[in-house]
Design a protein that fits this description.
Layout lengths: L9 H12 L2 H9 L3 H5 L3 H20 L7 H29 L7 H17 L4 H8 L2 E4 L14 E5 L4 E2 L8 E2 L8 E5 L5 E8 L4 E5 L2 E4 L2 E2 L13 E5 L4 E8 L2 E9 L3 E7 L2
Antiparallel strand pairs: 1-2, 2-13, 3-4, 5-6, 5-13, 6-11, 7-8, 7-10, 8-9, 11-12
Helix pairs in contact: 2-6, 4-5, 6-7
């Protein structure tokens, strides 16, 4: 006599269907690591292809920092992989609808893939998460009113590294892709290891002097850009080396000091957050 099995509990059935058919899990995996959602659903070759295309886009983005490419060229080279990457989410949805009756992903398998995706974001030099951690801006509060009205005491500001440098894991040190401009407010580390903020008044290989708040180079006034902080006072001729800039410490418009700051000591361009 055959034994009649009781029907499965409705909650268990719902849980199983949810585990097989859930779309958010592969989408999350595809966000963490391109192609990982497809690999979860056993589309191994296409998942690897998606990853390689996105890796190529990362390489192009890094190379664009060092080659004189036009904005249009960079946009095309990066835009095509981006469009392809967006398409993979639609393809992933179609694949799940096609494979859901044949492929079953256990919670343990999904968890393992989730750990792989998170590890990729945090540890891989090609991942946006790793890049963001290495190049994230430093947040701090302004200590006084010396750079008023541009910055006032208590303002929350950021020192953005990416304005001047890019930190790539396999290079080992920040790489300058753009020099500070005159009248940028920058954060830097002085000879004693103290972090300071000041106003850029001189550029590499430049000798400047200040008379009544007007910056001169070779007796010619420099009016290429307006200072966000009113300048007053005089300063004798000061020279910046080829790998240095001149940064002024200011007290309510009056120049207190001008330092020659090596470029490697500059930690970012300062701008107001709140």
């Amino acid at each position: 006599m055959d034994t009649v099995r009781p029907p499965a509990h409705p909650q268990n059935v719902a849980k199983k269907v949810k585990g097989v058919d859930s779309l958010w899990q592969p989408i999350l995996l595809n966000l963490l690591a391109p192609g990982l959602g497809h690999i979860l659903w056993r589309e191994y070759l296409f998942g690897i292809f998606v990853f390689l295309v996105c890796l190529l886009a990362v390489i192009i983005a890094v190379v664009s920092y060092f080659l004189p490419l036009s904005h249009i060229a960079v946009g095309v080279l990066l835009g095509l992989p981006l469009v392809f990457y967006i398409f993979t989410f639609f393809d992933l949805s179609r694949s799940i609808n096609r494979l859901r009756t044949r492929v079953h992903n256990t919670p343990r398998r999904v968890l393992v893939f989730l750990v792989i995706g998170l590890a990729y974001q945090l540890l891989s030099p090609s991942a946006p998460g790793n890049f963001a951690l290495r190049n994230s801006p430093a947040l701090f509060s302004v200590a006084d009113n010396s750079l008023s009205p541009a910055l006032r005491k208590g303002d929350l500001v950021k020192a953005s590294r990416l304005d001047y440098t890019v930190n790539i894991a396999f290079v080992g040190h920040p790489i300058f892709h753009s020099l500070p401009s005159r009248f940028d407010i920058v954060r830097y580390t002085d000879d004693e290891g103290v972090k300071r903020i000041g106003l850029v008044v001189g550029l590499p290989n430049e000798e400047i002097g200040i008379v009544d708040g007007q910056i001169y180079s070779s007796r010619t006034p420099l009016i290429d850009k307006q200072s966000p902080v009113p300048l007053a006072g005089d300063w004798p001729l000061t020279y910046a080396g080829g790998m240095s800039i001149l940064v002024a410490e200011i007290n309510l418009g009056t120049i207190r000091d001008i330092r020659e700051v090596p470029l490697q000591s500059v930690s970012g361009k300062v701008s107001k957050v709140l």
